[in-house]
Design goal:
The protein has one domain: Up-down Bundle (Rhopdopsin 7-helix transmembrane proteins). Helices cover 70% and strands 3% of the residues. By secondary structure, it is mostly helical. The strands form two sheets. Strands 1-2 form a two-stranded antiparallel ribbon. A two-stranded parallel sheet has the order 3-4. The chain contains ten helices and four strands; from the N terminus they run αααααββαβααααβ.
């Protein structure tokens, strides 16, 4: 029953992620006539997620096909081969979102600085996570070979540490979005729609902490002939949520998302220029300027 659920859930999320990315591509082509770096990063995230799903489905089949230890060895090799694709998915989705932030809000230097900091932090985390997971056992084949003498670092402890940082970056990106949007005075309905869009991004970080709380964050070498089913499902859910979050800003699609983004960026630039020109005595009491964006399709 658990295997059937895992197969069904994996296939459903694969279709959902592919559809989400395809809609983003359609919107970009329809409005801009071309694909941007954000689109290709979202596509790279999709490829990483689908590859991880493919390994998981293969593992579910292999682990029930053959006798121990043969089934175990094949399963652990698949688990080992899949390790880079989850952190790559998280890197590509966050990079796509940060590119979106930069295109809209980089007119303010402090915002641009934080966007770069978060991007660099995620890149460093991704490299470290992949490196540690690939070299977690010494010798490397101790991960799957029952007859080799060796040792492995505590993979659960390591993954708790890396996943904590990954989720913290998710929440930091949401917090940055709140600050950036609140810095420009929008109509309440428009601001609520924007903030709701950014808050969706916190779901990925929340799932990360749920995985940490479950304890079985990753496969422990020589512990089981298959993926930990519950954590595998949570990991797929986290990747799918991240993909939807990085694609969602474009979904007004046919919807004129780039028209909205262009207008918002223009207003942000006007706001920055206006603040440079006026003196402190001339500024409004709340330090903000009203932007009438009610007519924007958000």
């Amino acid at each position: 029953m658990a295997t059937i659920f895992s197969l069904t859930f994996s296939i459903f999320l694969a279709i959902l992620c592919a559809t989400a990315t395809a809609l983003r591509f359609v919107a970009s082509k329809r409005i801009l006539g071309r694909l941007s770096a954000e689109d290709w990063l979202a596509f790279a995230a999709l490829v990483s997620c689908l590859t991880h799903i493919g390994f998981g489905l293969t593992n579910s089949i292999i682990s029930h096909d053959g006798f121990y230890p043969d089934g175990y060895v094949r399963s652990q090799k698949i688990a080992y081969a899949s390790t880079p694709f989850y952190p790559l998915n998280q890197f590509f989705t966050k990079s796509s979102i940060l590119f979106f932030y930069h295109r809209i809000f980089s007119v303010k230097k402090s915002f641009a600085r934080w966007i770069y900091i978060l991007g660099i932090a995620q890149a460093v985390l991704t490299i470290l996570t992949i490196f540690i997971n690939l070299f977690i056992c010494h010798p490397i084949n101790y991960y799957w070979d029952l007859w080799v003498i060796g040792s492995c670092m505590d993979q659960i402890t390591i993954n708790r540490a890396t996943e904590s940082v990954n989720s913290a970056i998710d929440f930091a990106m949401v917090a940055l979005a709140f600050v950036m949007v609140s810095g420009i005075r929008l109509a309440l309905s428009t601001k609520l729609k924007l903030l709701l869009l950014f808050v969706i991004g916190s779901l990925s970080g929340l799932i990360g902490f749920i995985r940490i709380g479950n304890g079985n964050v990753v496969w422990r070498a020589k512990d089981s002939p298959s993926f930990h089913g519950a954590d595998y499902s949570w990991a797929l859910g986290q990747q799918a949520t991240s993909i939807i979050c990085c694609c969602a800003p474009m979904y007004k699609g046919a919807f004129h998302p780039y028209e909205f983004c262009a207008k918002l960026a223009t207003r942000a630039r006007q706001y920055t220029c206006w603040r440079r020109k006026v003196s402190p005595l001339d500024e409004p009491n709340d330090g903000q300027v009203w932007l009438a964006l009610d007519d924007f399709s958000v």
